Every structure is written in structure tokens, then in C-alpha cells.
TrEMBL record:
Every Putative zinc-finger domain range: 5-38
Protein name: Mycothiol system anti-sigma-R factor
UniProt-listed Pfam families: zf-HC2
Top-level taxon of the source organism: Bacteria
Organism: Nocardia pulmonis
Lineage, highest ranks first: Bacteria, Bacillati, Actinomycetota, Actinomycetes, Mycobacteriales
Length: 88
């Protein structure tokens, strides 16, 4: 199954947090192996995650907050991709 960049970037935090299953992780990695913009974005997200972990002591956000943030990130990525597609 071919993934588009929007789907990969929306799920990159799930992969970084170890919250996706092995099949999803394999699909994401396969896409990133062939897509330099996505692997670059993944690297930036990974650095941000490490920075947050070092500054916040690894505290885990409440589940409700995590769900709201995930939803907002997905909406933001979708809106950005839609706007970029319309401008092309």
C-alpha cells in the first residue's frame, strides 16, 4: 500500500512514541526510505521529542490532552496539504 506524505507525517509521532503496530511502522519506514522530505521531517520530530523529553523529565501528558493534540496535529497536516494542493 502506497502512503502519501500527509499520512506519514500525521503518524510519525505514533511511531516515535512506539504506539503503532509493527505493520504500520514497516509501512511508514518503507515510505520514508524512499522520500527525503518525510525522512527529514521525521528527523526534526525525533530531535524535538528528545528535547522535550530532556526538558520535561519524561512526564507523560494526560490521555485527554494527548488525544486532543493528536487530533489537532492531524487536522493541521490535512489542512496544510489541502492548501498546498490547491495552490499547485
Amino acid at each position: 500500500m502506497e502512503l502519501d506524505c500527509t499520512a506519514v507525517l500525521a503518524d510519525v509521532w505514533l511511531m516515535l512514541d512506539g504506539e503503532c503496530d509493527e505493520a504500520t511502522r514497516d509501512r511508514l519506514r518503507h515510505h520514508m526510505d524512499h522520500c527525503s522530505p518525510c525522512i527529514e521531517a521525521y528527523g526534526l520530530e525525533e530531535k524535538l521529542k528528545r528535547l522535550l523529553h530532556s526538558k520535561c523529565g519524561g512526564d507523560r501528558a494526560p490521555e485527554g490532552l494527548r488525544e486532543r493534540l493528536t487530533l489537532e496535529i492531524r487536522k493541521s497536516v490535512t489542512i496544510t496539504e489541502t492548501i498546498e494542493t490547491k495552490e499547485v
